[in-house]
Amino acid sequence: MDMEQNSKDSIEKTKQGFEESFKKAAYYDMQTQDASHLEAILSFLPIRPGMKILDLGTGTGYLSFAIAKRYPDCEIYGLDIVAET
């Protein structure tokens, strides 16, 4: 098997793992229901009005939506390996 095919297989296996994890939802739900955790992240990020932000691994958009609400003048783009969450 060549290196390119190995990479494609690895990406596909990773994608399937994430999709299974999102379907179970247990860990992700615990992580994203903590308002103090979200506030700590938002306070840490050096976001300024008018910024363009790329959220890699955006998942359900939990963080992107919170940033958009707090900073409506920013452009936020989310990209994730999982097509449906």
Automatic annotation (TrEMBL):
Name of this protein:
Methyltransferase domain-containing protein
Please state every residue range assigned to the domain named Methyltransferase: 48-84
Which Pfam families does UniProt cross-reference here?
Methyltransf_31 (PF13847)
Annotated InterPro entries = Methyltranfer_dom, SAM-dependent_MTases_sf
